[in-house]
Structures are given as structure tokens and as C-alpha cells.
Design brief:
heterodimer, A: 506 residues, alpha/beta, Rossmann fold, globular, B: 355 residues, mainly alpha, ABC transporter involved in vitamin B12 uptake, BtuC
Chain lengths: 506, 355
């Protein structure tokens, strides 16, 4: 099957989102669709998925023109759209999710659970997925949810699958799992449109690429003909750095110890954690999903409880029972999954940027809005936040700018320790670089910074040293030339620092 | 800086020059605008229905004013409760217990004040104005405490608000009815002054209380840490917690405030009528308060709510009751109209969003 989109135009109001975009995708190829947030990728794919109408242009399937008015039209034509926010119902088992909206019924009209279960098991077997179809979706990790979605698409005999940033919330092993599945699909002559910000992945899995910038098609070609730097510069329109930003320090340039943790344990997620962080240092914490790093730092931040161990802040042992206490003591935590954990969708930009400091700046409970505004104006400029009015809704901003607003609310609190959990999640290349710059600048201002990330590259790029976690324990520490993707991956999968031999390359 | 300018241009473009342009802009951007329009239409309708069958403008105006004072006074208590309900709903919760809290705090007031054998304050020798002042303080404290108790069961006990307040609703009324059965309390005449004191020729004290509380609540919701934290909690509880908002404290205070406001309503009611029917007073009050909040644009899922909107909502419902009265609609049918208003109001707000 071959899909062609010709001269697609789309505008929202006076804003031209797509300007005459033409592309084609065939079965058996994996085509990367690249571009910064706001480049028009989602709009283009929503048009292909029947979610949005186009203003002009045409869509052809095998040379025949088609019109998609609803998502159902698109699905029936063999196009499956796997959205970034997965469309699975957590409270139903996998096999019922597989048949949502297309339930198999018995003659008497009740659900034919057995047949649904069996068909699910059959497709899992065909796709080499080891999963119990009776498991609740709630209990699956992100990669398996993705895989369930892919299997669901396969069940509808999709011949083109659109995957919108499928790997953002996945760890490296999980990504491998999804990639293995994508390769199987490719062999079965299914075409995949792969939307991603991760150029490594594009190089690894895709054979063709399409780059959009500001609604224009800027480049199309074979992935093997270009380098990652080429792709990155097509996306942003200028050259992007990928080398380490680590400062060449004499190692002792950083300040005195700010945070020390001794024997921190909670019964489920992490055990016997010991580390120490000094002012001005950027320490990475990495590992695979389920390594317990988020839980560990949420406990240090007072959002969750820990069972035993000591937290020592600037030489004094502290017990932190609530997030507000942690903030008063100078700890800040920028959470992962911005939408669920950080964005107050009903509030405007300035409020999202000042929620942390409301009570800090207030006089007798009255919010000091002029001080918040003054502070945010400075931050808007220094963090380079692209926005309209301060009183616009937070949801009017792109992902990168939302993240900067979230960051600004923490900077307003003047933290001594800044914990950043997946700080560049769902952020485009340009904003990512901005955020790295900000991190380095803050470290220079003597803030102790902890970066939690499952992207080894990110850790290598910004951190002075990194602790690698594996199943709730710190497996090892890497720094300098030891800080490379191979060593980190070895530690994250349970290997030891010493064993140099016998490690397979990923 | 550049996006700033673009934004301004965009905002200014749908002509504030023409009335229609301004109207359209307001209609789609100001969530309270459609509610206000609805209220204005109803007031015009009501004025027309009242007619102009008078000898002079003065006479007409007096009649119109009296009608309005009646409407406002009759709805002051529930209007105050609806303000508290708005806060509760904004946190993503609900309070079904308000009617029963009204009864139990009302009964408490009457027992404190009673000039007969059961009077608690009388028994310890406190009478007159000190008794009245003390009663007001104690009743407010009692209401606050009951609300806080509900708040504790919701926050520390993690009982869902619907369940916690459903339980409280049953407990408070049942306890009141049991202990108050057969007693006939007499409230001192001075206490009645709280509601019946006349300013000029008008008995408008309840309206003044309502207005003052509405103003305070408006200020709190717009300008204070507490008010904005309510929205933060209702909008995204997890994000609020991770931003250092003490979620439990916010919720506890919201329910305690609700209890306090209900006790204000109880004082108004007891001082207006001089008695309270413990088995019927406040029945359905929770639904009326929720209806006023919802008509006023408050989102039942939390995160969005307007004190001013709730005042409008309350007035719309009140004026509609008045209209139905003037039209002579049979009493049993009136509830149906209220139902229609609630649904239509929410439909209107839906439309706004998609437009």
C-alpha cells in the first residue's frame, strides 16, 4: 500500500500551520517525521488520521483519491494512529481493550470474552509478545501499553501505522522491545510513520525521513545519507551541538556539600541509598524504568514517605514530611510527566509560574502579585520563554515553553538543591538546548543540581558525574571518560563497573 | 517581545468598535458574560410582568424595590451557603451535609438562647446582649468545627467527600431531631434584631450579610494564597502537591469554611423566623447551593469556579422562582423549571467553549 499526501494546506485562523506539504509513505518502510514542536507534524498526521479536515490538497491511497471525514474513515482505509496519550482503559483487561468499540458478542448479545481472549492471545503469539491477555492494563509498563496499542492496530489489519513519539516515556530496554516489534511490522510489509525527537532512534530504526519546519517540507531522503547533525540542523534551521557540555573543572572547583543521603530505604522501590552532592555540581541519576529513582527523590522532596535512613542538608539531619517543608529547606523538584504532575491547566501562565512562591511572598495571606510579575518578567527573558500575555492559559504554550514556565516556578523559590526529573521530556530540540544551558548556568550560580533521566545521552551531555541505579540500588558511579553510553547501560542492566569484557554492544 | 505584539493585535482585532463585535468577543471570552445576560433578561421579564399599573413612578418603584428586597432576603441564607459550596466544588469535592448542618447549628443557637427552662446560657446566668453575642460566636465556632470534622475525615481519613458528607447529612439531622423532639424553645426578641433590624424602612440585614460575605469570598478567591490554592488543588491535585501546596490543609479549611457559612445561614434563619422546623428546614439546600454554583459556571470536576458567577446563579434561580410565582405556575411544577435552568446554563457554557 502507498499513501500520498499532496499539497496539503491547513491554517487555524490566521496561522498557517501547513503550507503545501507533499509526502508519500509505502508499506514496508519506516519513515521518520521530524520537526520541532509546532512545525506541523501533529496537524499533518491528524489530517491523515481523519481527526482534522484539510483546507486544500489531496490524499491518495494506491493512486486513488480518498476523503477522510472522520477517524473511522481513515481506520477503514487501513491507517492506524497511535497517539502519544495512549487510548487504553486502565481498568479493563488487555483483551477487552483490544476490542474496544468492536466488541465480539455472542448470539445472545453478551460479550464473548473467551473469543476476545483467544484472538488477543493469537495476535500476541503472531507478534512474538509474551503477555497474558487477561492482565489489567493498569499493571502494564509504558512499553507494553505501546505494544498493546500496536497489536490492536494490527488486529484491524492496518497497513500504515502512525506512531506519535512512542518512546518518550520509555527506557532503553523498553525502546528496544518496541523497536523489535516495529521491525517485525516492517517485515510484514506494514508502513510506519514514526514521529520522534530522538535522532539516535531515527538513525537506528528508520530508513526514510521527512523534516517539517514552520509548516514547510524542508527535507526528504534516506536516513543512511545524512548524519544526526544534518537532521538536527534541518529541524531547527541551524547547527545543533551533540558533544558533552561538561565543564572542564579541576574537580575541586565545586563548593561544599549540600545534600547527603545515608542508608535511605523504603521497602518497595529503593534500598540503602548513599550519596552526597555539593553546591555547583550537576549529578545525573540514571537507570531503566522501575529503578526507583523518581520514588527516591520524591521521598527526599517530602512527597512520599521513606522507611529508614538519614537525609542531611547542609550538615544537619532533617526530617521532611511534606513538600512545603522541603521547599522551605531549599529543595526543589521538577517532576516527570509534566501534564500529570506539573501543569495546572485551569490557571494562566503567571500563576503556573508562581504557585510555589505564593505563600512565601504573601503578606497575611494576600498574594503579592506585583512581585511575582516582576520576577517572572526577568525569568521570561532569561529562560527565553516564548509566550503571549502572562494571563494567557498555560495550555496555549508549546511543550518546551511549558517546561520553562514550570522551571521558573522553582527558580523563584531560590533552591539550594534542584532536582530535575526528566527535564526535557516532550520538549523540542531548540528548547532542549535552552534547558541544558539553563542547567549549566544554575550550577554556576552554586545550586546543587540533580538530573534524573533515562536518556544516557542527556546525562553525558550535562552532568559532571552520574549515579546509575538498578532495581532500587545504586549500581555504580561514572565520571569523566567512564561516563559513556556503554558503561551506563552495563550498570543499568545490573552489570558491574569492572567487567569490561563480554559486554554486547547495544 | 515579538509574540507579545502579535498577540495584542490579534486580541484587538475583533472590533471593539461595534457593539456586536464587542458582544461576540465578550460572549466567547468572558465565562460570566452569558450568565449575566441571562440574569438581565430575567430581570427585564420580571419587571414587565410586575407591570406598570401604578399611579406614579414613585409608587411603582417602591413596589418593585419591595419585591426585590423580598427576593434577596429570602435567598440570603442559601446564597451564603452557595458561596461556600463554590469553594468546595472548586477543590473537586462536594458537601451534601449543608442542610443538616443548618439544622444542628440552628438548634444549638436556640438551646443557647432559650429563655425557657432549657436555655443553656440562661442557666449559667448570662442573658441579654452578652448572651446574644456569645451565642453568635459559639454557633459560628460550632459550625466551623463540624465542617473541620468533615474535612478531617476527607483528608486524614481519605473518605470520599460524597460519602463523608452524606454520612454527616444523616447524622446531624437525626441527632438534632432526636434531642429536640417535643421541646419548644423560645428565642429572645433581641436576637431577632440580627435579621430584623431596619435600616431606614427596610429589613435588609440578611442581604447586607450576604453582600459582605460575597465580597470577602470574591477577594479571597482572587487575591489570596488560600483562594488560588483552592483552584490549584481542584485543577491538578498531584501538581499542586508537588508545588508545595499543603493539599490537606486547603481542603480542611474549605470544608470548615463551609460549616462556618452554614452556621451564618442558620443564625439568619433563626433570627428571621424565631424558630426552626428541624425535620424540614434545609432539606434540599445542598442541591440548591450546587445548582447556583453550577449555573454560575463552576465546574463540578473542580479547578474552575466563580464567586460572582454563583451570586448570578443564585439570583437567576431566585428571580425565576419569583416569576413562576407571578405567573401562577403550580408549586409542584416549579422544581422542573429550576431543573431546566440548571441544564440550559451548563449547555450555554458548553457552547461557549467550542465556539
Amino acid at each position: 500500500m502507498k499513501i500520498e499526501m499532496k499539497n496539503i494546506r491547513k491554517s487555524f485562523g490566521s496561522n498557517d500551520v501547513l503550507k503545501e506539504v507533499t509526502l508519500s509513505v509505502q508499506g514496508g518502510e519506516i519513515c521518520a517525521l521530524l520537526g520541532e514542536n509546532g512545525a506541523g507534524k501533529s496537524t499533518l498526521m491528524n489530517i491523515l488520521g481523519g481527526v482534522l479536515p484539510m483546507d486544500s490538497g489531496s490524499i491518495l491511497i494506491d493512486e486513488k483519491e480518498v476523503a477522510f471525514e472522520t477517524p473511522v474513515d481513515s481506520q477503514e482505509a487501513g491507517i492506524a494512529f497511535i497517539h502519544q496519550e495512549l487510548n487504553l482503559i486502565n481498568d479493563l483487561p488487555i483483551y477487552e481493550n483490544m476490542f474496544l468499540g468492536r466488541e465480539i458478542k455472542t448470539k445472545r448479545g453478551s460479550l464473548d470474552l473467551k473469543q476476545m481472549y483467544d484472538k488477543t492471545a493469537a495476535i500476541f503469539e503472531q507478534m512474538n509478545v509474551e503477555l497474558d491477555p487477561g492482565k489489567m492494563v493498569r499493571d502494564l509498563d509504558a512499553s507494553y501499553k505501546q505494544i498493546v496499542e500496536i497489536c490492536r492496530a494490527m488486529m484491524t489489519n492496518a497497513s500504515i501505522i502512525i506512531m506519535d513519539e512512542p518512546t518518550t516515556s520509555l527506557t532503553d530496554t523498553e525502546i528496544e522491545r518496541v523497536f523489535a516489534m516495529m521491525r517485525t511490522l516492517k517485515e510484514n510489509n506494514v508502513g510506519i510513520i514514526f514521529i520522534s525527537h530522538k535522532l539516535n532512534e531515527v538513525k537506528e530504526i528508520c530508513n526514510r525521513y521527512i523534516v517539517l519546519r514552520d509548516g514547510n517540507l524542508v527535507s526528504v531522503g534516506n536516513v543512511s545519507d545524512v548524519t544526526k547533525n544534518d537532521l538536527a540542523s534541518y529541524m531547527v534551521g541551524f547547527d545543533v551541538r551533540t558533544e558533552s557540555l561538561r565543564r572542564v573543572t579541576g574537580n575541586e572547583e565545586v563548593g561544599k556539600e549540600v545534600l547527603r543521603v545515608e542508608g535511605l530505604t523504603d521497602s518497595r522501590h529503593y534500598r540503602d541509598i548513599n550519596f552526597s552532592i555539593r553546591a555547583g555540581e550537576i549529578v545525573g541519576i540514571t537507570g531503566l524504568l522501575g529503578d526507583g529513582r523518581s520514588e527516591l527523590f520524591q521521598a527526599i522532596f517530602g512527597a512520599d514517605h521513606y522507611a529508614s535512613g538519614k537525609i542531611i542538608l547542609e550538615g544537619q539531619e532533617v526530617t521532611i514530611k511534606s513538600t512545603s517543608q522541603a521547599i522551605k529547606k531549599g529543595i526543589a523538584y521538577l517532576p516527570r510527566n509534566r501534564k500529570e504532575n506539573a501543569i495546572l491547566k485551569d490557571m494562566d501562565i503567571i500563576e503556573n509560574a508562581s504557585v510555589v512562591t505564593w505563600s512565601m511572598f504573601s503578606k497575611r495571606g494576600v498574594i503579592n502579585s506585583s512581585r511575582h510579575k516582576r520576577l517572572f518578567k526577568e525569568q521570561r527573558d532569561s529562560l527565553r520563554i516564548k509566550m503571549g500575555e502572562m494571563t494567557d492559559s498555560i495550555t496555549s504554550l508549546s511543550g518546551g515553553n511549558q517546561q520553562k514556565v514550570v522551571l521558573s516556578k522553582w527558580l523563584a523559590a531560590n533552591p539550594k538543591v534542584l532536582i530535575l526529573d526528566n527535564p526535557t521530556q516532550g520538549v523540542d530540540v531548540g528548547a532542549k538546548e535552552d534547558i541544558y544551558d539553563i542547567i549549566l548556568k544554575l550550577a554556576n550560580e552554586n545550586i546543587a543540581i540533580v538530573v534524573l533521566s533515562s536518556e544516557a545521552q542527556e546525562i553525558i551531555r550535562v552532568c559532571d558525574r552520574a549515579l546509575v541505579m538498578y532495581h532500587g540500588v545504586i549500581q555504580g558511579e561514572v565520571r569523566d571518560e567512564m561516563m559513556n553510553e556503554q558503561t551506563i547501560m552495563r550498570l543499568a542492566t545490573g552489570g558491574e563497573l569492572g567487567e569490561e569484557k563480554g559486554v554486547h554492544q547495544l | 517581545m515579538i509574540p507579545n505584539k502579535q498577540h495584542n493585535l490579534e486580541n484587538a482585532s475583533p472590533g471593539k468598535k461595534t457593539f456586536i463585535g464587542w458582544f461576540k468577543h465578550k460572549w466567547s471570552n468572558d465565562p460570566l458574560f452569558s450568565i449575566l445576560i441571562a440574569l438581565i433578561i430575567m430581570v427585564i421579564l420580571q419587571t414587565l410582568t410586575l407591570g406598570f399599573d401604578y399611579n406614579s413612578f414613585g409608587e411603582w418603584f417602591q413596589s418593585w424595590t419591595n419585591n426585590w428586597i423580598n427576593i434577596l432576603r429570602n435567598n440570603a441564607g442559601i446564597g451564603i451557603v452557595a458561596l461556600g459550596m463554590t469553594f468546595v466544588i472548586m477543590t473537586g469535592g462536594i458537601d451534601l451535609s449543608v442542610g443538616s448542618t443548618l439544622v444542628i447549628t440552628g438548634a444549638f443557637a436556640m438551646y443557647l438562647l432559650d429563655t425557657g427552662a432549657q436555655g443553656i446560657l440562661g442557666a449559667v446566668g448570662i442573658t441579654g446582649v452578652p448572651a446574644i453575642i456569645l451565642t453568635v460566636i459559639l454557633v459560628l465556632a460550632f459550625g466551623y468545627m463540624l465542617g473541620a470534622l468533615i474535612g478531617v475525615s476527607i483528608t486524614k481519613g481519605m473518605v470520599p467527600p460524597f460519602i463523608a458528607t452524606l454520612g454527616a447529612m444523616m447524622i446531624f439531622r437525626s441527632v438534632t431531631q432526636h434531642f429536640a423532639q417535643g421541646y419548644n424553645t423560645k428565642v429572645p426578641v433581641e436576637f431577632l434584631q440580627i435579621s430584623s433590624f431596619k435600616i431606614g424602612n427596610f429589613m435588609i440585614m440578611p442581604i447586607i450579610y450576604w453582600a459582605i460575605i460575597a465580597f470577602i469570598m470574591y477577594y479571597v478567591s482572587k487575591r489570596t494564597t488560600f483562594g488560588r490554592q483552592i483552584i490549584a488543588v481542584g485543577s491538578n491535585e498531584r501538581a499542586a502537591k508537588l508545588s508545595g501546596v499543603n493539599i490537606n490543609k486547603v481542603k480542611l479549611r474549605v470544608y470548615a469554611l463551609m460549616g462556618l457559612l452554614v452556621s451564618v445561614a442558620a443564625i439568619i434563619q433563626v433570627s428571621r423566623i424565631g424558630s426552626m422546623d428541624f425535620s424540614n428546614a434545609g432539606r434540599g439546600m445542598e442541591m440548591d447551593a450546587i445548582a447556583a454554583a453550577v449555573v454560575g459556571g463552576t465546574n463540578m470536576l473542580g479547578g474552575r469556579g466563580f464567586i460572582l458567577g454563583t451570586v448570578y446563579g443564585m439570583l437567576i434561580i431566585a428571580v425565576m422562582n419569583n416569576l413562576l410565582n407571578l405567573f401562577g405556575v403550580p408549586p409542584f411544577l416549579r422544581e422542573a423549571f429550576k431543573g431546566v435552568i440548571v441544564i440550559v446554563a451548563v449547555l450555554l457554557q458548553r457552547k461557549e467553549k467550542t465556539a
